[in-house]
Amino acid sequence: IFLLVHLPLVFGHDLKGFDDTILFGLEWPGENSDLITGNTEEPLIVTTHNKEKYKCFIPSLSEVPKETETKYTGPGVMEIISGIFSSTSCSYRIESYWTYELCHGHYIKQFHEEREGKTSKKQEYFLGKWDKQKTDKLAETLAMAETDGEKLKYKKIEGLSLPYVELEMTDGTLCDLINNEPRVTKVLYVCYLLGKNEIYSLKEVSTCNYEVIILSPGLCDHPSYRPTETAENNINCVPLDGSPDKPKSLLDMELETLRTDFKSLSEMSKNVRTFAIYKIDPKFSEGSAVTDIITL
């Protein structure tokens, strides 16, 4: 649906309207809704490409109610990460040419091996290394940051802003493209309950400097590193100037979706007698498709 927005009415909103981590849903309560007279939310006038006009009410952002907070007494962040070092051997990522090997708490390297008969030729570069001394130093840094109340760092992954623990693996193989400086890799651990400490992504952010994201279920044990739940904010739109309760193009799209779903259902259930009855809901001035599915 293409909506033309009258901009003078939206100056009161802040830039959170451009944050794609905030969820909005469109509702069409109809012409007789109490929203027309009793709503205190800021209105926004929109017009579809069919010249249908609506007054939409933009809600104040809502948050998911938080459970009663109790003091966390479980393992610390570095204790969780150290557990990954000892319990997980290595994670791999295979690409068209290079294979990447990340041995948690030890090193990350890339290699390519070519075999000719009984002989093989191997290219290998270490992208960074880690040791116990770095573990101890990171533990101190994280403890101090928690004591000082510092905010966690976040990384946007699949549209979600996730807090992460960062390890900087240094002292990799020298890189002749940057004056023989050693290669460096930042390893970011994020919470993912279904993860297996595997490599989610690996990229070279600048010459011989890399970033790896690891999906760690163990990190979800710590409440500070769990994803923040976001409530959906409903935008209610009521018709103006005789427009239908819901835009015609939206009704057409919903009807097409129902037909597609029914076609898929028919193909899956060829041995079952299934009927789809399409009805027009009279409460919408332009009509609304409603489907009843009957299976015999």
UniProtKB/TrEMBL annotation:
GO terms for biological process: endoplasmic reticulum unfolded protein response; retrograde protein transport, ER to cytosol. The keyword Signal applies. It comes from the Eukaryota. The keyword Endoplasmic reticulum applies. PROSITE patterns: MRH. InterPro entries: Man6P_isomerase_rcpt-bd_dom_sf, MRH_dom, OS-9-like, OS9-like_dom. Residues 88-222 form the MRH domain. GO terms for cellular component: endoplasmic reticulum lumen. It is found in: Endoplasmic reticulum. Pfam families: PRKCSH. Keywords: Disulfide bond, Endoplasmic reticulum, Signal. Its main location: endoplasmic reticulum. Probable lectin that binds selectively to improperly folded lumenal proteins. May function in endoplasmic reticulum quality control and endoplasmic reticulum-associated degradation (ERAD) of both non-glycosylated proteins and glycoproteins. This is Endoplasmic reticulum lectin 1. It comes from Pseudolycoriella hygida. The gene is erlec1_1.
